[in-house]
Automatic annotation (TrEMBL):
Species annotation: Cupriavidus campinensis
Superkingdom to which the source organism belongs: Bacteria
Protein's name in the database: Conjugal transfer protein TrbB
Database matches in InterPro entries: P-loop_NTPase (IPR027417), T2SS/T4SS_dom (IPR001482), T4SS_GSP_E_ATPase (IPR050921)
PANTHER family: TWITCHING MOTILITY PROTEIN PILT (PTHR30486), TYPE IV PILUS RETRACTATION ATPASE PILT (PTHR30486:SF6)
Lineage of the species this protein comes from: Bacteria, Pseudomonadati, Pseudomonadota, Betaproteobacteria, Burkholderiales
Amino acid sequence: MKPSLQEQAYARMLEGLRRDLGVCMKEFENPKLQELMLNPDGKLWREVAGEGMSDTGHRISVIEAEQLFGSLAGILEIELNAANPILECELPINGARFEGLVPPIVQRPTFAIRIQNSLGITLADFERRGVLTHRDDPANKRRAEQRPFVELAAGKSHREIIELAVQRRLNILIIGGTGSGKTTALNAMTHSIATLNPSHRILTIEDTREVRCASENIVQMRTDGSVDMTRLLKASLRLRPDRIIAGEVRDKAALALLNMWNTGHPGGLATIHADDPYGGLVRLERLIEQNPGIRANPQEIAEAVDLCVFIEKEEEVLAGRKIREIAVVERYDPVSKQYVLTNV
């Protein structure tokens, strides 16, 4: 039976999409491919099972990326523009999950494509490939011997403590007043991430572009009138982040940040206005409760935030600001209704 005109038109659109995917189609041929990611700088990254993340060496121009987004939006019959800059869908050619962003929330078109598992992996495959842990696995012994961070930080300088926290992927909240240097401190810590963990994929979310990062694998997102930080935090989860840097948290987006830090995305950074580490945690409570019908749970906050770094203005030092306290968030005591912090 001859295809209808509508079917023929759809087939032509799919063929056009395959052409616009270009080098991505070649990457799709790898049965171990898990994720394919285009960063704003035009670099195409891949994550392959058993091999980790790497730069494919391919580059996709802005024009090529815009053509791809246009083809996909046309097939899906949706609008993609400054007022609607996020495209979430399944690729009609292979069912892969597509998360795409366009300006103004990113500088240039950005996407992450998560590939469906087509390998039919079994538990026996997992065991053979080392995914399943044996009782005698050395890693089990290492974890059992890990000491609390407070003990590891004892006797160390502030720099050593922060670098240790970065290595251990602690969630760090940078606290201070206006002009105290919070963003400068955040940038310094971001540099440590890029230096100590160069393979990590970093996503930044800000109202204004202030975060500076030397990582080669970075996606920087900015809020816009139509897309707030909460929406970007949710979208970021589909862009395959290793670490999420939220910039300044000043509204109800604190709830989304807390949820991320509590659900498998450690090693994040964020700044917040307050006068001391304890005040920073209380401030988080107030921001979370800006969400209608939500009451902050201090125990969840204590579980999500690992380290508080307090910085303030200091005219007597050359830089004009100084880190005054670094406090480990131990827990929230429901009896005294107080956060238990230990300065290190």
